[in-house]
Every structure is written in C-alpha cells, then in structure tokens.
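Q: I'm writing up a methods section and want to include an example of the input and output format. Could you take the sequence below and give the corresponding predicted structure tokens, formatted cleanly so I can copy it straight into the document?
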Amino acid sequence: MDSIWYNKIQLQVEEKMATLHAKDFKFYKVDYFLALAKEVDRLSSNCVDCNMLKSKIENVANGLDETLSGTISLRREYEKQLSEIEKHISKIHKIYPKQYFLYLYSFLGIVAGLILGAAISFLIDAKFLKLGVILGFTIGLIVGRILGQVKEKQHHTI
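A: Here is the clean output for your methods example:
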C-alpha cells in the first residue's frame, strides 16, 4: 500500500505529464523517477538521508513539466537529481536498477573472454587468433549473462 506522500507525488507527476509526449515520458525516465520515489518513501522511516531526499523529490515533481520542456540546463539538473537519488539507494541500501548486474557481468564476460581467447589462441598458434577472439567473445558473453542473471535474482532491483 502506497503512502499519502507517494500518492501525492504520483498525482503531481501524472498531471504534469499530460502536457508531454509519451516518448518524452520514457526518454526522461519519469517512470523510473516514480519508482525511486516509492523506494525513498519505503526507506525513509529508517534512513535520515532518504527523509531528506523526499524534499528533493517533491521539488522535482513540482517543476517536472517545466524542467523537461525547458532548457538543456534544466534537464541536466533533473538528470543530476535523479542520479543523486539513485546513487544513495544503490550505495547505502544496495538496491540497483533493473538489469544492472546483467549488463555489468555481460561486459566483464566479453572483456575476459576476448583476453583469454586471444591469449590461448596466440599460445597455440597465431593463425588461430581470429577464431580465438570470436570464441572468447561468444563464450564470455554467454557466461557473463548467466552470472548476471544469477546476481540479478540475488539483489533487490527497481
């Protein structure tokens, strides 16, 4: 059940978003902003910083339509505030964005696979370097995605 504070924020955002195009709503991650607000609300009873973030969220929600349809500097400020909220939640409360670990482990798997594939093929015979890199990339990506999905299930995500 959502709190009165969050319902007020959600109502404000929905009213302001009536003037924006649906693509802008998705591009500026307004749904993610609401998800962060919900998490901050949930965590604010035990966290002083989350309680202070509530006022920032209220300020962002109040001027959201002007911010997103305004100048670039206003949009950068919105993204900066969103990043600040996200950073606190992930660093302190260990709650991460969806697919965070999937992307991270996929990247690390690709890098490790490329390095190992190139090194092994170079040690065997230099003419197999192309094959080693391709196999290393593929295997690294597969292993990285599997490990990322496992890690994703172990952590709370937004």
